[in-house]
Amino acid sequence: MTASIHEIRPAGRRPSLQPLVALVTPGLNSVNKVILDRMQSPVALIPELAGHLISGGGKRMRPMLTLGCAAALDYSGDRHYKLAAAVEFIHTATLLHDDVVDGSDLRRGRATANIIWGNEASVLVGDFLFARAFELMVEDGSLKVLKLLSHASAVIAEGEVAQLTAQRVVETGEDRYLEIIQAKTAALFSAACQIAAVVAERDESVEAALESYGRNLGIAFQLVDDAIDYVSDAATMGKDSGDDFRDGKVTLPVILAYARGDAAARTFWQRAITGRANGPDELAEAIARLHATGAIADSMARARLYGSRAIDALALLPPSAARAALVETVEFAIERAY
After folding, report:
1. Exposure string over 24-60, b if 16+ CB within 10 A, otherwise e
2. pLDDT at residue 267 is higher than 50
3. Average pLDDT for 145-163
């Protein structure tokens, strides 16, 4: 991390999302009202299923970033409330679809919607939420906002398909992996931040700064997710430990360990990632190999690099409590465990 973090956060205090939460709580209440209103439907299953995920303990990080970036620009309007809700709907829709694709049982410590209501309902309600997001974008009336968020939605879908095609392909390279996470995770982070500059009517340099902040934060966020999948537990993460391993997802820790391993190690990873041997014993061996090759530590170091880039992008903004909260959000994203 760059020195700027320590200029605004007292030494010894763990990084927290609380400064951002405190900053945006009044606005987030308005966003939540939009979310609750727009997920309603005369088809009872839709609000029931959507509400299960939306009220399931998520941090609302992406809409909070929209609000936090708007605060850092001293924006005093209210357009960003509907747009932050649209961002959350896009994110929630992708989670519903992801859980179906991955066959996930847990999300934030609760049974996934597809386990409770089935795959068909989860996919269709995800489609409903995407449609609601686009309604909110159109109501805003800005073609630029519509372009940014619709493009992000398309890129996310491309990223998910790219991840699916790379699944169980242990030879997937680091460049390809980074392309995938920039699409499936960082695209929405960057759009969520950049639209704040659009509604605040700032110039393109400010838009570019917030886009860079969000994109690099999103990459760092996903790198940490992929690392802690091997080193945390279900109670902490809200999902099963080793899910990526069992699903055959080739993430950066695996890419590094595979590249650094000898012939025996490569055989192990080939058998594990292709699903021929990926039980509890193999997961334990995978974790040992990841630590022995430094793959976990180096993945976290890479996350810190992208985190520093995110913080550097904020240098264009004047010092403020909002900018400080955005900076601390980066460190929280890297040092979190949930």
Report:
1. beebbebbbebbeebbeeeeeebbbbbebbbebebeb
2. yes
3. 96
Give the SS3 label for residue 110: strand
Residue 170: per-residue pLDDT: 95
Average pLDDT of the chain to the nearest whole number: 90
**And the tokens for 171?**
């030879």
Q: Among residues 217, 196, 204, 198, which one has the least CA distance to residue 70?
A: 196
Cα 52 versus chain centre, distance: 19
3-state SS string over 197-223?
HHHCCCCHHHHHHHHHHHHHHHHHHHH
Return d(Cα 162, Cα 335) in angstroms, integer.
28
* Residues near 156 by beta carbon (within 8 Å), at least 6 away in sequence: 90, 94, 183, 184, 187, 188
- CA-to-CA distance for 255 and 294, rounded, in angstroms? 12
Q: Which CATH number does the domain 4-335 belong to among 2.60.40.10, 3.40.50.2000, 3.40.30.120, 1.10.600.10?
A: 1.10.600.10
* Partners of residue 106 on adjacent β-strands: 111
